[in-house]
Amino acid sequence: MPRQDRSPRPNALRGTACVAALGLATIALAGCSTPPEPASPGSATSPAPSASASAADPTSALPPSTCRDDQPGRYVAETFTPAPVSTTEYTAGLKADVYQPADDPAACRVAVVWVHGGGFTQFDRTGDAEQAWGNALAARGYVAVLIDYRLGDGAPFGLEMASDPSRTAVVDNAIDDAQTAIDWVRTSAADVGIDPQRVAIGGTSAGAMTAAGAALTATGDSRPCTLVSISGAINNEWVGADPVSGLFVHGDADDVVAYDSSVSAVDEINRAGGAATLVTISGAGHELTGVPEPEVVAAAAGWLREHAAGRCG
Question: How far is residue 19 CA from its own chain's centroid?
Fold first, then answer.
């Protein structure tokens, strides 16, 4: 699953452009692009709810709280300058880079654990795409925690090629590390200025798969508020009762991780009683896992504002 950092095709962002036009209260595709038909009637790709059915305007301030993170536009608009990145060890031998807003009046902020891609065998938290995600989230008021995790050897692979016991163990290790990172964020909340009740997780490609595994199999305090998956997939066996909510963003021309992986993930989570939505990027391939376009960041930030900042779930 090699990284592809090419820019999306000119028409690739029609779906998320529509999301931005609707103010990010909901993820909407109807009337903006024509994605392939979902594999089953349960897919949440479309139709989109009308603007009147949307949640409260996400550019408005959150209700006042002791966290004091109720600045208008926070969590969706670029409101802050990112502070210098700090690096820490979140568990033995594994590091995390913490991106946060500078000159922030808030006492506690929403945290997002972000997991890099690379087919479970390559790359780390310091890639160009990861730095772009960290800075983009920090500029919107989040605390982004970009993590390294244990990698396997050999050629990169995805979940569909992880049936071999050695590869299954690599995926399990990655998921365990991501859950450990969530736990570290919560136990370090006072030091980093995070609200331990509002922690989300996301990632790209194999990192999205890792984030999904961590979110969907977590219990108790390890369970995050929500999940953001960019060009990822899930193992249906991870989905139990009352699954974590999730946003899945995927290009319908992806020849590395099949677009249908996200279609089926959304179906499976919704079928189990969760709340999952698919944003289809028309004509885009696996380049979505590179440095993100503003519309992709906007879709993710809008989802996180609604499902982590405004409420957990």
Answer: 16
Alpha-carbon distance of 222 to 216, in angstroms, equals: 10
* HEC letters along the chain: CCCCCCCCCCCCCHHHHHHHHCCCCCCCCCCCCCCCCCCCCCCCCCCCCCHHHCCCCCCCCCCCCCCCCCCCCCCCCCCCCECCCEEEEEECCEEEEEECECCCCCCCEEEEEEECCCCCCCCCCCCHHHHHHHHHHHHCCCEEEEECCCCCCCCCCCHHHCCCHHHHHHHHHHHHHHHHHHHHHHHCHHHHCEEEEEEEEEEECHHHHHHHHHHHHCCHHHCCCEEEEECCCCCHHHCCCCCCEEEEEEECCCCCCCHHHHHHHHHHHHHCCCCEEEEEECCCCHHHHCCCCHHHHHHHHHHHHHHHHCCCC
Query: Tokens standing for 175?
Result: 């998921």
pLDDT, tens digit (0-9, with 9 covering 90-100), for 115-167: 999 999 999 999 999 999 999 999 999 999 999 999 999 999 999 999 999 99
Q: Where are the domains of the chain?
A: 14-39+74-309
d(CA 201, CA 114): 6
* Of 46, 11, 52, 12, the residue nearest 31 (C-alpha): 46
CATH code, residues 14-39+74-309: 3.40.50.1820
Per residue in 2-50, pLDDT (tens digit) is 443 333 333 334 343 334 332 332 333 332 333 334 333 333 443 322 2
